[in-house]
Amino acid sequence: MAEGATGLLGVVLFARHGDRSEFFQDPLTYNPSETTLTPLGTVQENQLGRYLQDIYINAHSSSHIGGIDFPIAKLDQILVRADAAGEGATIVSSTAALLSGLFPPTSAFKITLANGTTVEGALNGNQFIPVNSVDPNVDISLNSFTSCPNFDQHTLNFYNSPEFAAEAAIAAPFLQAAQPYLGGRSINFTNMFNIFDFINVNDIHNATFHQELPRTFRTQAYGFANFHENGVFTDTASSGIGNIAFRTILPSVFSALTNIADPSNSLKLALNGLSYKPFISFFNLTDASVDGQSLFGIVDYASALALEVHAGNPEPFITVQFKNGSTDPAFHPVTLGRFGTNATRVTLAEFISTLTPDAINSTAQWCATCGQTALRGCAACGT
After folding, report:
1. How far apart, in Å, are the Cα atoms of 27 and each of 33, 95, 152, 289, 362?
2. Which of 6, 213, 220, 273 is within CB 3.0–4.6 Å of 82 for a Cys-Cys bond?
3. The model's pTM
4. What superkingdom heads the lineage (predicted)?
């Protein structure tokens, strides 16, 4: 990442939530159940925040964002949004925990009152940076794949495809072997994400389950779930509805990147708290890979994707970094195959112009794309 790093203007970040309690989502509509962030999840996110601080805010880092304020955050330099749908409480809480590591409590966060009294911020100078929780009924951008009939049809088409049937046949012996550990859950391959999530959560939090589960089962479940979710949240065409999880995020990405590159604009860091789904669609939209290996499937808890904006000469350019969860020690440079076989950097102008045709820019456009006429503001759009 050395090339152009001294001219780093800012970063657009995407972060998955941390460890949470068990989660169920309907395999046909992806309507979710409630879930909560665990203490482990708060630690993972705080650690991610501290890692990002070391990379982007530490003045001694080669990737330091020029001009960003620290230790006290300057609120006009940062924009923080978090998906408040589905896993929303978990995602919003995770984003707050990440911020507690990115801009941790500091004794510098204090104020002197008119009577001469100096008051340090609560909890040893905690800055309580605002998180804009994005209500999916008001703003579809961070969670656009539910209540979308055409996306539901895309999912059903995938479940009825020869590729799905072939993978289901491969998975069948494993699912039969795993059935005694699943507490009566359906072993239909359409339910593969929920099977993996049950195994994953209990393997982390249930000591008896952890001791009894055959050691290969978690990895096997993860592999089959990756195939499952990658098929749901991608498409053969970049403008296909399978990529909708990131297509609705693109306009805010373009805006943040443009503002960061604009010397008259104060924005330096835009943080988006998300589920795993938009990561999959971004990887597919950009043909992303690391060290020759394609990126796809379910990213781990507390994963991070960074779109870095560099000053460049003669024009700003973007590099992309990816860190797969709390056990991955560092960022890895991402190659964006859509922009060239070995494209590890792309001009800001090319990035925006190439992806603009795939963007869904408004609720009305989302309603038309989804074939939705009533829910999530579509009745008012007249679609």
Report:
1. 12, 26, 9, 27, 26
2. 273
3. 0.95
4. Eukaryota
